[in-house]
TrEMBL record:
<keyword id="KW-0963">Cytoplasm</keyword>
<protein>
    <recommendedName>
        <fullName>FGFR1 oncogene partner 2</fullName>
    </recommendedName>
</protein>
<dbReference type="GO" id="GO:0009611">
    <property type="term" value="P:response to wounding"/>
</dbReference>
<keyword id="KW-0175">Coiled coil</keyword>
<dbReference type="GO" id="GO:0005737">
    <property type="term" value="C:cytoplasm"/>
</dbReference>
<dbReference type="InterPro" id="IPR008555">
    <property type="entry name" value="SIKE"/>
</dbReference>
<comment type="similarity">
    <text>Belongs to the SIKE family.</text>
</comment>
<dbReference type="Pfam" id="PF05769">
    <property type="entry name" value="SIKE"/>
</dbReference>
Amino acid sequence: MLLLLIELRTSLEEHQSALELIMSKYREQMFRLLMASKKDDPGIIMKLKEQHTKELQAHVDQITEMAAVMRKAIEIDEQQGCKEQERIFQLEQENKGLREILQITRESFLNLRKEDVSESTSLSALVTSSDLSLRKS
């Protein structure tokens, strides 16, 4: 997503530069044409100014729209990043809890095993002494 934003920004900057160059050349040519054909006609001058203003406004609107799209893309990207960070935090907490449960289970299992070993040792001693008593009798 970040790469897309960088590409959009670069594209916007290139578009603005190209637009500025084109409009500059256009104004120069229109000015030369105006001077060559009808120097004193205010109607033509006003028409050219209006036409230039409309074209310039259309380009400004287009650039503004592109900037709004870029801002929205950045906002969405930031929201997505926050959601991912939140999810990572939740998973880390869950992992920590599961590890604690596993540790408790291990300790309980080891304690039970020790008890089983000591009980079997006691039973073994009882069985052996019972066997000896029975054999003597």
